Amino acid sequence: MFTIITGAQFGDEGKGKVVDLMSGEYDLVVRFQGGDNAGHTVKVGDDVYKLHLIPSGFLLDSRVLIGPGTVMNPEVLLREIEMLAEGGIEISPEKLGIDAKTSIIMPYHIELDGLRESKRTEKIGTTKRGIGFAYIDKVARDEIQMADVADETRLLRRLAELAPSKASAIQELDGDPAIVTDESLVGKYIELGKRLAPYITDVSYEINRSLEKGKNVLAEGAQGSHLDVIHGTQKFVTSSCTIAGSACANLGVGPTKVDNVLGIVKAYITRVGEGPLPTELHDEAGRQIQEVGKEFGTTTGRSRRCGWFDLPLLKKAVYLNGYTSIALTKLDVLSDLDPIRVCVSYELNGQVLDYPPEDTEELAECKPVYEDLPGWKGDLTGVKSFDELPEAARSYVLYLEEKMGVPVEYVSVGPAREQTFRKETGN
């Protein structure tokens, strides 16, 4: 069985926890795009793990893989491996595999990212971690791959070839070009490569062989559907394809192998950084959602902008991904809000739209049209099944399910694994 998981909004929907919950049913859990600009938080008991690269399935028996469609900072990855080791969790080469073709984020990528953002008159909200520039090099065939970093001779030869153009680009942005050939940084990457060399694998081969043997594979995306570099709210997007179809291309698995596509959907909506958010709240309800939901970015620490559920954007995500089911997260955050509002359409230039306009500037001008639903009171974090939810909370879930046109399979009422249950069976 091959299942793909993506976020249906602007990221931060709680994919990490859902992957952790499901990974016990899967032999392989694979990351298919993005870099350490993404982050997920997994809570097990009293332990909280904030991760950026290692797929969430590491806590159970799954083997976890980083696919060639990702861009990877090896220093960040080793830091995560060491952090988990301190907590008694060993991430050995038997547990983690990194594709040989995975693009490596180099120090000059990070430098270029920061310099370019500082020069923009209109900021796009980059995390300045070099993600975009690593993807630029991948498309331009100027990338340094995992296999290069693992071989000192190859790495030095590749750096010698690329150094003049990278130094020139940094100098043009008023930066210090010395970072490209800095001996201490080059030496650090040589050592990082040696330490990570045992983890190198062929991810496409592993996945396809596993599927042939009847094993289960879970592909995990980063960010959210509306941050997709092609279909998202340009230019306020990430640098990779975040939707389900890109899992096949990025991992080297044919689309006929896909069995399920699970969309992770927050019971409201949030966004980090710049870009349109039609239902954004600037009132007490928005502040309550932000505080109760602890809406601060795992990677950046920035406050997330919060808004009511946006059905037009969700309809587009359903089309973009072809979801077969939904996991609805953070339902507990909406407790003690009354009414609870749902955006069912937009008003734009005198017209009513039930689907987002393609143009980002037009989306920014859209005014939400709401339907109000009754709220509920009380703490939901101890609820163990759908039937235990207050009637108004159950009605809200069923209302969204009907409007989305996709069945809700999971409901989450807290950050821990045990605070998520199947809607139908209650377990």
Automatic annotation (TrEMBL):
UniProt-listed HAMAP family: Adenylosucc_synth (MF_00011)
Cited PANTHER family: ADENYLOSUCCINATE SYNTHETASE (PTHR11846:SF0)
Binding residues for substrate: 298-304
Record-listed E.C. numbers: 6.3.4.4
Top enzyme category: ligase
GO biological process, one term: 'de novo' AMP biosynthetic process
Catalytic reaction list: IMP + L-aspartate + GTP = N(6)-(1,2-dicarboxyethyl)-AMP + GDP + phosphate + 2 H(+)
Binding site for Mg(2+): 12, 39
Cofactor binding, note field: Binds 1 Mg(2+) ion per subunit.
Protein name as it appears in the record: Adenylosuccinate synthetase
Annotated metabolic or biological route of this protein: Purine metabolism; AMP biosynthesis via de novo pathway; AMP from IMP: step 1/2
Residue positions binding IMP: 12-15, 37-40, 127, 141, 223, 238, 302
Cofactors required: Mg(2+)
